Each structure stands twice: as C-alpha cells, then as structure tokens.
Amino acid sequence: MSASRLLRWTIPLAAVPLLALLAYGFRTDPRDIPSPLVGKPASAFSLTAFDGQPVSLDALKGRVVVVNFWSSWCYPACYEEAPSLERAWKAYRDRGVMVVGVNFQDQEEPARRFLTQFGHTFPNAPDPSGRVSVDYGVYGVPETYFIDRKGRVRFKQVGPVTDQLLEQQIETLLAEAA
Fold first, then answer.
1. In this predicted model, what pLDDT tens digit does every residue of 4-50 receive, in sequence order?
2. Is the pTM of this model over 0.85?
3. What distance in Å separates the CA atoms of residue 69 and residue 96, rounded to the nearest whole number?
4. Which domains are seen in the chain, by residue range?
5. Per the omega criterion (within 30 degrees of 0), is the bond before 126 cis?
6. 55, 25, 71, 61: which is closest to 41 by C-alpha?
7. Which residue of 54, 71, 101, 169 has the smallest Cβ count within 10 Å?
8. pLDDT tens per residue, range 72-106
C-alpha cells in the first residue's frame, strides 16, 4: 500500500472513535449518571440566607434535610419545581424536615424576585463563592439532595422535583430510625 493511500484512510479511521464517543454522549441522559455522593456524608456548609439569617448544615444534624440548588434564570425547570418545594416545606417542617435552597450562579435581585414570586418561606441562601455548589458536584440546576438524619446524602435528583418525588424520598428517610 502506498503512503498516500495509507494517509487517505488514516484520517477517516481516526475520526471513528471520536464519532462513537459523541454518539454515546448524545444518547446518555445526565440524570442517569450516579452521584458519587450518595451514601457518603453530606458536605458541611454555612451560608447567609437572603433574610440575613445563618444557614448551616451542621446545625441541622439529626434532621432530614432537602438541599435544592436553583437559579432565577433556570427556566422552566426551577419554576416548575418551586411550588412543590414550598408545599413539601409546609407539609413536613413540623415533622423535623428542613428544606434549604441554595442559589446557584445568580444575581441578587432576580433571585429575590423569584423567592417572592413563589412565596418561599424556607431558608434560601446565595452561594457567592460557588464553594457549596462545587462541594456537591452541581453541574446544572435544578439539583436536589436528600440527606438523612445521620448526615449522609441518600438520593440526588437532577432536574425538577415533583410533589410525588419529594413525598417518596422524605417519607423513606423519616421512616428510618434516627
């Protein structure tokens, strides 16, 4: 085989693995990728909520905690799940469940408008340095983490949560011994 003929086939053949990788990537749903955090201790964090109050995961030890990462620019997913999160907070707060919102890569005014629009009464805090988001491996919003009473991440939802999913995960964690 001549050198020119070999070269003519080398470039197309080199593209085959790249095309195969792209095809795999386009067919893979990021929601199906298991989180390495599930089953491990949740990363501790301390933030200041939009209302000026401290929000600390350490202060919530012994409680079931739902941590939701959201942004005002996350449309429509964050807008779809916002009412469900408030309903879950109202339904479960008297049973020792805490819902915490962490605002991801957002500006303060739009974030405050979002909270007002949906009447969120559970703690919501900006993550100005992005450290909490990095510690949780957030790569897009919304993402929600369910933490058991022992402080371990037990489930991660990529994409909007629903009333049914919130109830299912929270009830499962509440049914476990402390």
1. 665 566 666 565 565 555 555 555 545 455 667 888 999 999 999 99
2. no
3. 21
4. 36-175 (3.40.30.10)
5. no
6. 61
7. 54
8. 999 999 999 999 999 999 999 999 999 999 999 99
